[in-house]
Design a protein that fits this description.
Elements (H helix, E strand, L loop, with lengths): L2 H25 L6 H21 L8 H26 L5 H27 L20 H17 L2 H17 L2 H8 L3 H8 L4 H15 L5 H6 L3 H10 L2 H14 L6 H6 L2 H11 L4 H14 L3 H9 L3 H9 L4 H15 L3 H9 L2 H10 L7 H14 L4 H9 L2 H11 L2 H14 L4 H10 L1 H7 L6 H15 L2 H9 L1 H11 L14 H11 L3 H9 L3 H10 L2 H24 L1
Helix pairs in contact: 1-2, 1-3, 2-4, 2-5, 3-4, 5-6, 5-7, 6-9, 8-9, 9-12, 11-12, 11-14, 12-15, 14-15, 15-18, 17-18, 17-20, 18-21, 20-21, 21-24, 23-24, 24-27, 27-30, 29-30, 30-33, 31-33, 32-33
């Protein structure tokens, strides 16, 4: 077609766009046939978006497009006539008007589908990449909905590139303003279109997965995704998508499976096998593996799914192997997954021990120069704390891995958060049988625990005090502890309420310190050192305020002092 005809066609498109805007505005003043006119407005808005995109076309027009524009203008004239008659209530009968409105709505629907076919056939130039003005930050709800409907129309009628650009614009809008997510939920068919795109080509699949992920971030909207059948397509993206699509799909499934009711749907669509494959093959990045571990952790909350996973060959081996990853995010999520799988389950615990899982957990702690981060060490300690102390087999394996040496190292040299986690595990160990406590006394835990007695955190002080009390309840440890004069003098100093440099002594730790001293008085040398110290008067003052434990301590020390006096008189 010639240049003049192209200009005439552009003018016709502008005329049609103007007529649609005018007609939509007029329709809002119609008081009758509300449902019919709402449907017509929706059709007009879809047609408006498709025509608006053509205004950027920089090449000639096809005859089929010119013919379509002429048909659209004719339908708009018919509709305007119907709208005017409805406003003036000048129609001959309701049934006839309803029929006429159905006819015109059908015409607009056909025009939109014909425009979509022209796009899909590639007749139009790709030079008119979508340019849509997003409403400003203070836009009203209707402006935002209109913008989303415009993007929806482009997704419906556009070629692959237009669909992709519309999805990109949609994701940008949802990322910048949560209100657009609500608009997407409220617009009919929008979520279904996004879910359907998950089975499209890679570029569209990626962007639609991102859109679905944005929506899944809102717990109240997840049921809309589930009703739209999102689980199956997301699993198919896991199986066949590219790395970006797989990662977003896994993150989305992780959110959706926070509700255990959705776990069965993932399993029935083959999601368990797809996730296990991602974790085992070693070809994927850390983010994808970590997110897959997160989904599996949610799934094992359903006992039947967990049993199915464990019965799969090499499942536990795969999880254990991931603990040795050099990426923190994989280490953390794989340990968290193992913790969920094995917690309160003797069968899986036995498998964990048999396949070297305890050794792998300890290896996260073992090398001071290792790549394991503080976060990895913390969660490894939490896993050991939760899994290993209720089973003799786990505990024996733990001790054979030189766990105490590694734990002691972390108490001495770890970052503060790691030290606190190590202290918690130490406290748990101190509640175990005497043999364990005797070993802990031999390798040097008691001096390290003393250092925590004056920590800023009350919880830390209490854990350290209780652990130390448990260790010195063993006679051998008590004797060893008393041999170091610093240990006793430091505890006495902490009890000295008149020492202004000591802030923590007034913060609830006194009771635990008195219990430690009371235990030490069972050792003759310790009792003599306490009685001979310059802090005895302070202890007597404490007895007036701190209750029976302090009084018992004073009484025991007084007996020792009385014996010493008698002994001196006897020998003189």
């Amino acid at each position: 077609m010639g240049e003049e005809t192209g200009e005439e066609s552009k003018a016709s498109i502008g005329k049609a766009i103007e007529a649609i805007s005018s007609l939509i505005s007029l329709s809002h003043s119609i008081k009758s046939f509300n449902v019919k006119w709402q449907l017509i407005r929706t059709k007009l808005q879809e047609l408006y978006s498709g025509l608006a995109a053509l205004q950027n076309l920089d090449s000639g027009f096809d005859p089929s497009l010119s013919s379509l524009i002429s048909a659209i203008l004719a339908s708009l004239r018919d509709c305007y006539d119907l709208a005017t008659r409805c406003v003036n209530v000048s129609y001959s009968g309701k049934l006839l008007m309803q029929s006429d409105l159905d006819v015109v709505a059908g015409k607009f629907d056909r025009h939109t589908r014909n425009l979509s076919r022209i796009y899909s056939a590639g007749i139009l130039s790709h030079g008119f990449a979508i340019v849509v003005s997003k409403p400003n930050a203070n836009a009203c709800k209707e402006d935002m909905r209109f913008y989303i409907r415009d993007l929806l129309t482009r997704m419906k009628i556009g070629d692959l590139e237009m669909k992709k650009q519309a999805l990109i614009k949609l994701n940008e809008a949802m990322e910048e303003d949560d209100r657009y997510v609500k608009a997407v939920i409220e617009i009919s068919d929008m979520v279904n279109i996004l879910v359907g795109f998950l089975d499209s080509e890679i570029g569209i699949q990626q962007e639609s997965a991102k859109a679905v992920f944005f929506i899944s971030g809102f717990a109240s909207y997840r049921s809309v995704l589930i009703r739209s059948g999102v689980i199956g397509p997301l699993v198919r993206v896991l199986e066949n998508g590219d790395d970006v699509g797989r990662e977003v799909s896994a993150r989305c499934l992780k959110k959706l499976t926070e509700n255990s009711e959705n776990a069965w749907s993932v399993s029935s669509h083959g999601g368990v096998s797809a996730l296990l494959k991602i974790c085992s093959c070693g070809e994927f990045g850390g983010e994808l593996i970590a997110s897959s571990c997160g989904v599996l952790r949610n799934l094992v909350g359903v006992e039947e799914i967990k049993r199915y996973m464990i019965e799969e060959d090499d499942t536990m081996t795969t999880f254990i192997k991931l603990i040795g990853s050099k990426e923190e995010i994989v280490q953390v999520n794989s340990i968290d997954l193992l913790l969920s799988v094995c917690s309160k389950d003797e069968q899986t615990l036995e498998i964990l021990v048999r396949q070297g899982g305890i050794q792998e957990l300890v290896s996260v702690l073992s090398d001071p120069n290792s790549l394991s981060s503080s976060k990895s060490k913390e969660i490894a300690l939490r896993a050991i704390d939760n899994l290993c102390f209720g089973s003799a087999g786990c505990l024996n394996t733990l001790m054979s891995c030189k766990f105490l040496d590694h734990l002691l190292y972390l108490l001495r040299n770890g970052e503060i958060s790691v030290q606190e986690s190590a202290l918690k595990v130490t406290s748990r160990l101190c509640s175990l049988p005497e043999e364990v406590k005797r070993i802990m006394g031999d390798v040097g835990f008691m001096p390290e625990l003393v250092k925590f007695l004056d920590a800023k955190s009350l919880d830390v002080r209490e854990m350290a005090s209780v652990a130390l009390y448990c260790l010195i309840s063993v006679p051998r440890n008590r004797k060893k502890f008393a041999q170091d004069d610093y240990n006793i003098s430091y505890i006495l100093k902490l009890l000295d309420h008149e020492d202004g440099s000591n802030v923590s002594s007034d913060s609830g730790n006194t009771k635990f310190l008195i219990s430690i001293l009371m235990s030490l008085t069972s050792c003759n040398s310790a009792r003599r050192k306490i009685a001979a110290s310059g802090y005895l008067k302070n202890i007597e003052k404490l007895a007036e305020t701190e209750g029976s434990d302090a009084k018992k301590l004073v009484k025991k020390l007084s007996k020792n002092r009385f014996r010493s006096i008698l002994s001196g008189i006897w020998h003189s």
